[in-house]
Amino acid sequence: MYEGSPQQRDMKNKYKDVGERMKDENNSDSSFILHSSSFSQSRVLAIDYGSKRVGLAISDELRMLARPFNFLENTNRLLKEILAIIETEHIGCVILGLPRTLAGTDSEFTTQVRAFAEKLFAKLDTKNIEHHFYDERLTSVMAQANISEQGWSKSKREEKHRKDEEAARIILQEFLDNL
């Protein structure tokens, strides 16, 4: 059974230790509930930018786990829709997947992503929201492999937005694992 990265296990143990100390200090036999709001941070949003669809993933408040969140159609409303999600989901950091070639150079599509990033990052700067590019090489291939392993029906596996969301989740989880 996967128990998380060493960093994730350390964080869980840290919170467990805090809870045990507080329970001991109260000399209470009743179970102690550690409220996550005591240790909450803002969430992280990952974006897998595509020419037709944009996959989104979001972290938990402890910035340990990533989950697929949604997808958006890439229309002229995209920036506005992303900013609304950032507001409603209490996002404090945005990760934008940067498509690179296997050789590590920019592709033609990288230019489009950078143009979108320039607009998005300018808006995020005005709101003091942290933002980063993250190398997304091979995330679409990994996403397709993960989807194939889910045991879903063929029609569900072939829903194109699933690959976009899963690619965003992979980008985000890799980012979180490297914090």
What features would you describe in this structure?
About 45% of the residues lie in helices and about 20% in strands. It has six helices and five strands; from the N terminus they run αβββαβαβααα. Strand 1 (about 45-50) and strand 2 (about 55-60) form a beta hairpin. The longest helix is centred in the first third of the chain and has 21 residues, at about 5-25.
Q: Which value, in Å, is the CA radius of gyration?
A: 19 Å
CATH topology of the largest domain: Nucleotidyltransferase, domain 5
The tally of structural domains comes to 2
Strands of the biggest beta sheet: in what spatial order?
Answer: 3-2-1-4-5
Note the overall shape: globular
Write out the CATH superfamily name of the largest domain: YqgF/RNase H-like domain
Regions with little confidence, pLDDT below 50 for 5+ residues: 1-5, 11-39
Beta strand count: 5
Helix percent reads 40-55%
Helix/strand structural class: alpha/beta
Largest sheet: 5 strands, mixed
Produce a short descriptive summary.
This protein has 179 residues and is an alpha/beta fold.
List keywords for this structure.
179 residues, Nucleotidyltransferase, domain 5, globular, five-stranded mixed sheet, alpha/beta, 6 helices, 2 domains
SSE layout and pairings?
Blueprint: H1 6-26, E1 43-48, E2 53-59, E3 66-73, H2 78-88, E4 91-98, H3 108-126, E5 130-135, H4 139-148, H5 154-157, H6 160-177
Parallel strand pairs: 1-4, 4-5
Antiparallel strand pairs: 1-2, 2-3
